């Protein structure tokens, strides 16, 4: 039975460790699935504002053309822009993701067209844009039943007819990781963004393949100069022509890894490694106990002529073989677990939202080698220490185990033993895991209780993303008004509004300028969140009015521009004056972007947090009427009388009634959207809590095993104590005092170490300090109670020692 427990313990620990490494390998180490991925890099402009951190930007169409014609470090560079559109066929319509690409993009990434062809330079001519498309294998199979005659047929994207010229190989989904259709970027003005080829905004991602022999550092040096030259010729912000702008590049593998995900998976690997080490120490203690009970056998072997070396190898091979079997089974279990493990898409971020993480775990050669190393190290760790007992064995004492000597406690602080040291080490590891998981759990609970600033109950949300060719910016207010009216007529809907993002999911931002105050230095205008909303916005989301008035249906394009601001904006920008009546304008391309287009502040409302909990909060919000300016792509908020999902079919019909080529996307209840924004934190906390629970159980079982062995070895001593008049309560207290000594010392060291180690988790905690006394006290109580429970069984057993048998042996 003991061998089965040992094998299972090591199998579970090894399975968890190899699975965690497979996750780390997929999320951080493994290169993206393209030919020679180490030569691929993402290219960016880099702004360097005075006194602020530098920030990366993408490229405009015209800047990319200059980059492509002048760079010398890359075999080729290509642009791509992901988007979601409506794919219409003769039978139905569906939302698909597309990439609008330059002609060399698919070739650069190693795509193959079967059947058909890839794009060529003729497809990428801005003067003569061709209405062609290439579809992915999955779209071909799902939407066109793998019909080989698809090449030459016509499909419609956002109502624009395109001729299919090729089908890509299975598994290719582009750098975005989810594209199903590719179109030339030059056709984008008709499909998605009317100003794609002419706007000054930097929104187009660029990828390049390094020339052989050219390092990424050398490419960065060239781009630093080239980016500066391009920005000098075509300033990103004409108001600041002397702004310091350079160029840079990062490897594709680096670009796909979000820093918060990197931290999460490394914490996961560290936690699992600690758990596996704790399992190994538990097994070592079990094997040491087994070796102790066989001391007489080992002494006989030595007395009959076996050498200490032979005995060492005998014990080592036995323990190592058992450990290797358990750990080897764990690797196979990890292989199975990895095959069914897929990271939830909502929990893994991407670089600038355009490069997929490509992080699905898989058992590669690297993971198999890691598993083999874990098996070897586990076998060595669990086999060597018990085998070393052969060199420390006293033969004469081992042959006289039936003597009347009294055995000392294996967990005594006064006379430390190897058993006790291992128990203390287990307590340290358990404390680190339990305290870390406790801090994360407390952080998640604080997120759950945090006031986001809205009432999310009974609100349906969805995105509507029309083509800017069909809904240009000048037409957007009228389109949004028709959309709101159509959705408001759906039975069961009480009020409707729109915005550019949801609470805890991000929002548009801009820079603020206050009329009557000096303009801030270049690049130092304060950032604020911007919202183009409907007159019922605050009623729909439950945002309270503090002073003044909210927006109304009379605030239209022909009336003076107005804005409503948040409490934090009022305190931050007007600390000693009345904000209502002041006029403000904003940077960017909206209709509020100059002093003569400034908006008057007419009201102050409660704060709403739009940034996720793992991002710094900017609570300074400015709301303006969509009728005075908006974009066509909007998130719709509909407050319902009952279950928000019950109105979805009618809402879809209402949206289609506004535009048959339009479809509601990402339809969800606002409460689910808000909850999902911290799902990754909840996942991390739950996972580490599971590890913490396992650590507590392993540590408690270690205390129990060692103390049970110690009590069994001292049964005669306890019998004599009882025979001499010791009360059973005193025997229990004696065992508990000795049994709890080392665990308490180990817990103290572990909690101190955990509070130091959890400093690295500070960025993962929300309103929770790594030294939170309440959490530390609670976790210490859990560990102490577990240790106490583990001691009670052996302590009670000590009181059952037979005093008559003990006196007879004397």
Brief write-up:
With 810 residues, this protein is α+β, with helices and mostly antiparallel strands. Helices cover 45% and strands 17% of the residues.
- Number of helical segments? 23
General shape? globular
Largest sheet: 6 strands, mixed, barrel
Number of strands: 22
Radius of gyration computed on alpha carbons: 34 Å
Uncertain parts: 345-352, 401-407
Strand order of the largest sheet: 3-4-9-6-8-7
For the record, give the distance between the C-alpha atoms at the N and C termini, rounded to a whole number: 34 Å
Entry keywords:
23 helices; globular; alpha+beta; 6-stranded mixed beta barrel; single chain; 6-stranded mixed barrel; 810 residues
Descriptive report:
The chain is an alpha+beta fold. The chain is 45% helix and 17% strand. The protein is built from 23 helices and 22 strands. Helix 8 (259-293) packs parallel to helix 11. The longest helix is centred in the middle third of the chain and has 35 residues, at 259-293. The chain is globular, with a radius of gyration of 34 Å. The protein starts with a helix and ends with a helix.
């Amino acid at each position: 039975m003991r061998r089965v427990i040992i094998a299972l313990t090591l199998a579970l620990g090894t399975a968890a460790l190899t699975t965690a490494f497979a996750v780390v390998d997929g999320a951080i180490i493994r290169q993206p699935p393209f030919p020679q991925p180490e030569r691929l890099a993402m290219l960016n402009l880099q702004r360097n504002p005075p006194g602020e951190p530098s920030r990366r930007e993408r490229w405009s169409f015209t800047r990319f053309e200059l980059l492509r014609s002048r760079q010398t470090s890359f075999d080729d560079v290509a642009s791509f822009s992901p988007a979601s559109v409506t794919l219409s066929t003769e039978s139905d319509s569906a939302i698909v993701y597309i990439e609008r690409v330059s002609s060399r993009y698919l070739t650069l990434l190693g795509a193959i067209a079967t059947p058909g062809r890839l794009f060529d330079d003729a497809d990428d001519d801005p003067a003569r844009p061709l209405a062609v498309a290439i579809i992915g294998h999955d779209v071909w199979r799902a939407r066109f039943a793998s019909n080989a005659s698809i090449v030459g047929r016509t499909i419609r994207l956002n109502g624009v007819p395109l001729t299919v010229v090729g089908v890509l190989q299975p598994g290719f989904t582009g750098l975005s990781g989810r594209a199903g259709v590719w179109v030339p970027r030059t056709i984008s003005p008709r499909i998605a963004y009317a100003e794609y080829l002419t706007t000054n905004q930097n929104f187009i991602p660029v990828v390049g393949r390094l020339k052989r022999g050219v390092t990424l550092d050398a490419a960065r040096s060239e781009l630093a100069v080239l980016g500066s030259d391009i920005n000098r010729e075509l300033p990103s912000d004409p108001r600041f022509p002397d702004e310091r702008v350079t160029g840079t590049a990062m490897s594709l593998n680096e670009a796909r890894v979000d820093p918060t995900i990197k931290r999460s998976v490394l914490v996961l690997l560290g936690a699992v490694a600690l758990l596996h080490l704790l399992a190994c120490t538990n097994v070592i203690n079990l094997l040491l106990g087994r070796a102790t009970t066989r001391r007489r056998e080992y002494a006989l072997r030595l007395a009959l002529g076996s050498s200490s070396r032979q005995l060492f190898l005998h014990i080592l091979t036995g323990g190592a073989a058992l450990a290797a079997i358990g750990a080897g089974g764990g690797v196979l279990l990890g292989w199975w677990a990895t095959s069914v493990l897929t990271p939830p898409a909502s929990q893994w971020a991407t670089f600038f939202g355009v490069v997929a993480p490509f992080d699905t775990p898989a058992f590669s050669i690297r993971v198999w080698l890691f598993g083999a190393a874990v098996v070897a190290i586990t076998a060595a760790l669990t086999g060597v220490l018990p085998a070393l007992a052969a060199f420390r064995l006293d033969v004469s004492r081992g042959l006289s185990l039936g003597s009347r000597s009294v055995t000392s406690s294996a967990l005594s602080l006064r006379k430390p033993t190897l058993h006790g040291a291992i128990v203390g080490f287990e307590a340290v590891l358990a404390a680190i895991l339990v305290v870390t998981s406790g801090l994360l759990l407390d952080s998640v609970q604080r997120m759950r209780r945090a006031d986001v600033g809205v009432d999310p109950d009974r609100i349906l949300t969805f995105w509507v993303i029309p083509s800017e060719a069909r809904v240009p910016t000048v037409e957007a207010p009228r389109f949004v008004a028709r959309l709101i009216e159509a959705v408001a007529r759906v039975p069961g809907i009480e009020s409707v509004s729109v915005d550019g993002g949801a609470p805890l999911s991000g929002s548009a931002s801009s820079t603020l300028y206050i009329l009557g105050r000096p303009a801030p230095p270049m690049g130092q205008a304060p950032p604020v969140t911007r919202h183009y909303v409907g007159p019922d916005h605050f009623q729909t989301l439950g945002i309270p009015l503090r002073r003044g008035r909210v927006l109304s249906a009379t605030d239209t394009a022909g009336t003076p521009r107005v804005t409503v601001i948040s409490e934090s904006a009022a305190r931050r920008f007007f600390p000693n004056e009345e904000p209502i009546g002041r006029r403000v304008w904003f940077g960017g391309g909206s209709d509020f972007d100059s002093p003569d287009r400034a908006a008057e502040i007419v009201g102050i409302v409660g704060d709403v947090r739009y940034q996720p909990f793992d991002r710094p909060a900017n609570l300074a919000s400015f709301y303006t009427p969509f009728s005075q300016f908006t974009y066509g792509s909007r998130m719709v908020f509909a407050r319902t009388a009952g279950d928000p999902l019950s109105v979805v079919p009618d809402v879809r019909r209402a949206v289609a009634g506004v535009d048959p080529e339009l479809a509601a996307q990402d339809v969800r209840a606002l409460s689910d959207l808000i909850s999902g924004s911290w799902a990754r934190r909840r996942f991390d906390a739950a996972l580490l809590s599971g590890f913490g629970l396992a650590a507590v159980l392993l540590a408690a079982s270690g205390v129990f095993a060692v103390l049970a062995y110690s009590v069994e070895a001292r049964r005669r001593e306890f019998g004599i104590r009882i025979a001499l008049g010791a009360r059973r309560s005193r025997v229990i207290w004696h065992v508990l005092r000795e049994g709890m000594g080392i665990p308490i010392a180990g817990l103290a060291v572990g909690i101190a170490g955990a509070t130091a180690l959890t400093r690295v988790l500070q960025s993962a905690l929300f309103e929770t300090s790594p030294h939170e006394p309440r959490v530390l006290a609670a976790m210490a109580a859990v560990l102490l109670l577990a240790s106490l429970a583990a001691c009670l069984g052996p302590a009670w057993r000590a009181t059952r020692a037979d005093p008559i048998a003990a006196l007879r042996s004397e």
